[in-house]
Amino acid sequence: MTLLDCQKNQRYTILEIKSADGALKDRFLSFGIRAGVEFTLLHCSFRRATFSIAIHNAQVALRAHEAALLVVAPL
To answer: Which pLDDT does position 40 carry in this prediction?
Structure first.
C-alpha cells in the first residue's frame, strides 16, 4: 500500500520509496522521510490532493504524486 491508501490518525512505517528523481529523494531525506521511519497521517485534502503527516515531531505536507511513491505498512 502507499500513503494514498492510509487512514487519518493511524500510524504507519515507510517500507520503501519508489523510484523518484534525485531532487525529490533529497527533499524526502531533508524531511526525515526514509525507509524504516514511522509516521502518522494527520490530514488529507478533500480530493486527496495533499497529505499532511507527522514525522519526527514535525508536520510535513506532501502532494499526491509524492505520496504515491511511499510504500507503507500499518503498525
So the answer is: 97
**Cβ atoms 31, 62 nearer than 8 A:** no
- Given a contact cutoff of 8 angstroms between Cβ atoms, the answer to whether 64 and 48 are in contact is yes
Give Cα separations from 53 to 39, 64 (angstroms): 6, 12
Measured in degrees and rounded to the nearest 5, phi and psi for residue 42 equal: -90, -40
Instruction: Answer for the pair 37, 55: CB distance below 8 angstroms, yes or no.
Output: yes
Q: What residue ranges of the chain have pLDDT lower than 70? A: 20
39 grid coordinates: 509516521
> Which letter does DSSP use for residue 65 in this model?
H
| pLDDT value, residue 20 | 67
User: What structural domains and CATH numbers belong to the chain?
Assistant: 3-74 (2.30.30.90)
Nearest CA to 53 out of 75, 33, 35 is that of 33
